[in-house]
Amino acid sequence: MKRRSILLYAVLAALPAGVSAASPAAQAAEAAQAFLDREIANLPGRVDITVGEVDPRLTLAPCDRIEPFLPTGARLWGKGFLGLKCATGAAWRVTIPVDVRVYASVPVANRALRAGEPVGLQDVETKEIEVSAHAPGLLADIRAAEGRVLARPVAAGAPIRADQFKNPVAIAAGDPVRVVLTGRGFDISLDGKALSAGAVGDNLRVQLGTGRTVGGILRTGRVVEVPL
Fold it and tell me: How many C-beta atoms lie closer than 10 Å to residue 100's C-beta?
């Protein structure tokens, strides 16, 4: 079962003496908690959220309905801000700091991995880390990288990212290829020779039997597709 905890520094129990549970600050805390409960429901793994308080120097007018919102460009991932606005009864808008920490089990390298080598189950171990401390793109399952090789080295203990992989070299310079010239409603197939090494999906320059040089996309089966 996933464990989620929200630490609210503006919750009712933390309100200063004499502050009513119906005060705008208390209402803001309740609205923030309800919003966060909904928003984190689909986050993976274990989620810990720390929510700051409304600036105590502000005097908020009574409000009938408070609406939380995410400021433009913000997301509930790592350190950020949550907006709160009075939608009915007043016209104030404030932001409070939030720190969303997401922990999940992901594959990490069990040794230093070299560029150009494939990575399989034998090269990783599963470890719980704070995934919110990393940019999006961490692999949840190393099998998603099957058939690809590392584009750059990965240190031992580092999590594995999807953008660290590339397709393996499929063609060497001088290898024969089949060049398919494609146009609207037709295609022409010719023999050619690769002028450089390349992986599937790469742009590749090839020389035709006539001596003409063209560029296209390397596909599987040593086919270079050249749109006209």
Answer: 22
Burial 186-197 (b: 16+ CB within 10 A, else e): eeeebebbbbee
Residue tagged 């742009």 (tokens): 203
Token code pair at residue 149: 């090789």
> Residue 107, CB half-sphere, CA atoms under 13 Å: how many?
20
Q: What is the pLDDT of residues 201-211, one digit of tens each?
A: 899 999 998 89
- What whole-number distance in Å separates Cα of residue 154 and Cα of residue 135? 16
Residue 168 tokens, joined: 């393996």
Residue 73, CA distances (Å) to 8, 65, 82 in order: 23, 24, 11
The model's confidence at residue 22, banded by pLDDT at 50, 70 and 90, is low
Q: What is the dihedral of CA 6, 10, 13, 19, to 10 degrees?
A: -160
